[in-house]
Design goal:
Elements lengths: L1 H10 L2 H8 L3 H5 L5 H12 L1 H5 L11 H17 L2 H12 L4 H28 L12 H17 L8 H13 L6
Helix pairs in contact: 1-7, 4-8, 6-9, 6-10, 8-9, 9-10
């Protein structure tokens, strides 16, 4: 992961990965057929489990908003300020030049995340927590703050730090209605 993040997908060489890992380059080929398959396994190991938690959420005992907020806060903690976030930024930056990598990421991460969000949105609509029924057609709207936070962290945080949790709260207020405090 460190090599890919430091050099980007295009410039990362298996020789450099082997050197960093302290193994012979041939050892890598015992486990991976090429750089792309190694990168795919990295994504499966580092990112997919975070998204998989969305589809394995505990039974709903409170509001859908509470469940989404808990998942999103966990995502912020586990991705935004970590090396996982750097990996997501790498996909965003290099995906257009490497369509097979972007396609893999879409299949393994994005489509699963959107399916989970869509299911939660549909449940919230059915329960009357969300009034805008068309939101289910665009689950990207619900996850937009997470993507903004990932990108903002690497590009602009040193100029204007972003309170991603507060931005998420405002975003959810817009979708669910302002949370009332007692």
């Amino acid at each position: 992961m460190e090599e890919f993040i430091a050099r980007g997908f295009a410039a990362t060489r298996l020789d450099d990965i082997a050197k960093r890992a302290g193994v012979a380059k041939g050892t890598i080929y015992l486990h991976f057929k090429d750089k792309e398959s190694m990168f795919e396994e990295l994504v499966r190991t580092v990112i997919v489990p975070v998204v998989a938690r969305l589809n394995a959420l505990p039974p709903l005992t409170g509001s859908v908003r509470d469940l989404i907020e808990a998942f999103a806060n966990n995502f912020l903690k586990e991705v935004i300020g970590t090396r996982r976030g750097d990996l997501v930024r790498l996909i965003v930056a290099e995906g257009p030049r490497f369509p097979s990598v972007a396609d893999f990421y879409y299949r393994e991460v994005v489509s699963r995340g959107m399916a989970g969000m869509r299911a939660l949105i549909e449940l919230a609509i059915a329960r009357g927590e969300i009034r805008e029924r068309d939101l289910a057609r665009y689950p990207q709207i619900l996850i937009a703050p997470a993507m903004i936070a990932v990108i903002w962290q690497s590009l602009f945080a040193r100029h204007a730090p972003l309170d991603a949790q507060d931005m998420l709260r405002v975003h959810l207020d817009l979708i669910f209605g302002e949370r009332r405090t007692t």
